[in-house]
Design brief:
By secondary structure, the chain is of the alpha/beta class. It has 3 domains: about 120 residues, no CATH class; about 160 residues, 3-Layer(aba) Sandwich (Rossmann fold), CATH 3.40.50; about 160 residues, P-loop containing nucleotide triphosphate hydrolases (Rossmann fold), CATH 3.40.50. It contains 14 helices and 20 strands. The strands form 5 sheets. It has a 7-stranded parallel beta sheet with strand order 10-11-9-12-13-8-14. The protein has a 6-stranded parallel beta sheet with strand order 15-20-19-16-18-17, sandwiched between helices. A 3-stranded antiparallel beta sheet has the order 1-7-2. A hairpin with a 2-residue loop joins strand 3 and strand 4. The relative contact order is 0.10. Bound molecules: zinc ion (2 copies). The site of one zinc ion has 8 residues, from loops.
């Protein structure tokens, strides 16, 4: 297959006007060569550093000589500006000089993707240029005996269709809809056709949660879990479950790319991650976005008919999503400075403590949260606080789930992925910018997730209503309304 990398990358990175130099790639493999299928499988659809190919060092050169592998410069220069061949970074502040021991010169490296190993001026990125590796067609890959709800089923059918027809699809599913199950038949269809599938998500926690579930339901499939620190980078994986960062290492690899939580940080805010996801798909491939809170860009693409979509407005347990209460609580910052919890908030917490209802209280910033923590601990000694850099983050969430702590103060880090029976949630300073419509909808989505406890209180304490707060309430009411109209909730 002849690939014009120059035009490929022009397409992917056109908005940054960067062009990569792939002129060194020889794409005319000699037919007489007995190539290594291991290397073929490992390197097909990837662009890797020499250091990442350690098991193949001995045979790499002969494959290059015979045209089965090739390389291009890790960094190229255009108009005096460095461009990283792996992540597409061309921001000059993200390149740094260092004394390089490999080439004994002063080298420049890309800081943007340094967590995946250093790409410097003397690095080469290696790629497969021979015939592409073909994954096997699996007859019956799916071993799952669960059933889909009515709403899940229609989304599942559309996802299967997107895979069959190499189309794009947005699955807009409320928190608690059971979106993972929606993917099972689509992935099954892809594997039956010998396709390679990637399920990518911005957050490592989600990768770690999804991998065991997919290993259980696709027991014969080679599944590679890729995230920073994963030891499965050597696996080719017909099904790759990966953080969006790890997509930097792929190039035209996937027939089906599924992006879960497409609206989550850092994917939503990082152009290069979006470019990497685009670079990782084959030209003819399908892409499925999965989210409870699509960005306005995705929504407008749907409106303009540029993107197919399917909405799942109801939770799996067929109860409506709790609608948040908006409660004015004055200047909470002033209260905290005076070492007081605003009375309405204090009342909210006392009620949860008296009735042993586990709770999360979301703060707009770590600093305010830590200043306020001692005040909350006066109400109950065991109330703790968590944030993104907290090494005990997971243990604290487990303690809450097990009832060892009554409640946690948290930043938006826990707005996603937490499912605790009977949980209730409050936001402090809901008017702050960090609490976007999407963040607030996700926070409300933590409550009432279990069929045994399908309801619960969500309160946004504020010092003035914002458009985001009102939009979040409208969003949830609209979903509940649609769910009622379609007969997807029981009341
Ligand atoms: Zn880079
Ligand atoms: Zn060097």
């Amino acid at each position: 297959m002849e690939v014009n990398y120059l035009s490929l990358f022009k397409r992917f990175f056109s908005s940054q006007d960067t062009i990569f130099d792939y002129s060194s790639l020889n794409r005319n493999p000699l037919s007489s060569f007995d190539f290594s299928t291991n290397l073929q499988q490992f390197l097909s659809g990837r662009a890797l550093l020499f250091e990442e190919l350690s098991e193949f060092h001995e045979i790499l050169e002969e494959h290059i000589v015979h045209g089965y592998a090739g390389w291009f410069q890790g960094l190229s220069v255009k108009n005096g500006q460095y461009i990283c061949g792996r992540c597409g970074n061309c921001d000059k502040h993200l390149f740094t000089e260092f004394p390089c021991s490999r080439c004994s010169h002063s080298c420049v490296y890309c800081r943007k993707c340094i967590m995946m190993g250093r790409v410097s001026s003397c690095s080469k990125l290696f790629t497969w240029t021979g015939p592409t590796f073909q994954f096997s067609r699996q007859l019956n890959p799916l071993a799952w005996e669960g059933t889909l709800s009515e709403a899940q089923n229609s989304a599942s059918q559309q996802a299967v269709e997107a895979v069959e027809q190499n189309k794009e699809l947005l699955v807009w599913a409320v928190c608690g809809a059971g979106k993972t199950e929606i993917l099972f038949h689509a992935v099954e269809k892809a594997l039956q056709n010998g396709k390679r599938v990637c399920l990518a998500t911005p957050r490592t926690d989600v990768v770690l949660e999804l991998v065991p579930r997919f290993r259980t339901v696709f027991p014969q499939t080679e599944i590679a879990a890729l995230y920073g620190g994963s030891d499965e980078r050597h696996l080719a994986g017909q099904l790759v479950i990966s953080t969006t960062h790890q997509l930097f290492r792929f190039q035209e690899a996937f027939d089906v790319l599924i992006i879960d939580e497409v609206d989550a940080f850092p994917y939503s805010a990082d152009y290069s991650l979006q470019a990497a996801s685009q670079k990782s798909r084959k030209k003819i491939s399908s892409r499925i976005f999965l989210t409870a809170t699509p960005s306005s860009l995705l929504k407008s693409q749907v409106k303009r008919g540029k993107l197919n979509s399917v909405i799942i407005p109801a939770r799996f347990h067929r109860k409506p999503i709790p609608v948040p209460q908006l409660v004015w609580s004055g200047s909470w910052e002033k209260s905290f400075r005076k070492k007081k919890i605003p009375p309405k908030m204090q009342h909210w917490i006392s009620f949860r403590l008296q009735n042993s209802i586990p709770f999360l209280i979301f703060f707009p910033a770590i600093k305010t949260m830590e200043q306020a923590l001692p005040l909350f601990q006066k109400l109950h000694n065991d109330i703790a606080a968590v944030h993104a850099e907290d090494p005990d983050r997971k243990e604290k969430v487990v303690s809450l789930r097990e009832g060892k702590v009554p409640g946690l103060l948290t930043t938006t880090i826990l707005e996603r992925g937490v499912t605790i029976p009977r949980l209730e949630a409050a936001v402090i300073g809901a008017e702050e910018l960090i609490f976007t419509e999407s963040a607030l909808v996700q926070i409300a989505g933590r409550v009432g997730r279990k069929a045994d406890f399908p309801t619960g209180d969500v309160t946004f304490f504020h010092y003035g209503k914002t458009e985001s707060m009102l939009s979040a309430v409208r969003h949830i009411k609209m979903m509940n309304k649609q769910a009622r109209e379609k007969g997807l909730v029981d009341e």
